[in-house]
Amino acid sequence: MSCIFCKIIDGQIPCFNILDDDKTLAFMDINPVAPGHALVVPKCHTPDIDDAPAEWLGPVMASVSRVAGAVRDELSPDGINVVQANGPGAKQSVFHIHFHVIPRHLGDNLTMNWDLQPGDMGEIGKLAERLRARIG
Ligand code: AMP
Ligand code: ZN
Fold it and tell me: For residue 13, which of 1, 25, 66, 94 sits 20 to 30 Å off, Cα-Cα?
């Protein structure tokens, strides 16, 4: 198995887990573009949106909604973007479908093509704890 998100789902690689149910996993992005940046994935390997089995998309979007709600309630951003990339031209770098949940702040000047910058693991861990507790 070479997919990094499958390894995370399988427990072979650690993550800052914030939601774990039978069909989906949500965890913190370790190169966050904003504090609280999280990812939501299905627990089945599928590269992108046009390949994704319909029966997985419903549960994934339900988890995206729960994570976005926790981000809103816990971090009070000015807004939230849900972003999903398909293919290298869209800057997809991990080919296991995932939805980014990104807290936004007025004037943050975030563009949609970002470079990966490692975050502070202590800070990411603390935010994961707060969001996990909020999701319950
Ligand atoms: P994309 O560029 O849309 O494919 O996004 C992939 C995301 O996965 C990037 O934002 C990476 O920072 C993130 N990522 C890669 N490896 C890990 C990991 N081990 N744990 C958490 N996030 C990761
Ligand atoms: Zn995978």
Answer: 66
How many domains, in total, are found in the chain?
A: 1
Which CATH number fits the domain that encloses residue 58? 3.30.428.10
Ligand nearest to the CA of 5: 2
Each residue's pLDDT expressed in tens, for the chain with a length of 136 residues: 799 999 999 999 999 999 999 999 999 999 999 999 999 999 999 999 998 999 999 999 999 999 999 999 999 999 999 999 999 999 999 999 999 999 999 999 999 888 899 999 999 999 999 999 999 8
Domain of 91 in residue numbering reads as: 4-135
First to last CA, the chain: 31
Alpha-carbon span 103 to 81, nearest angstrom:
7
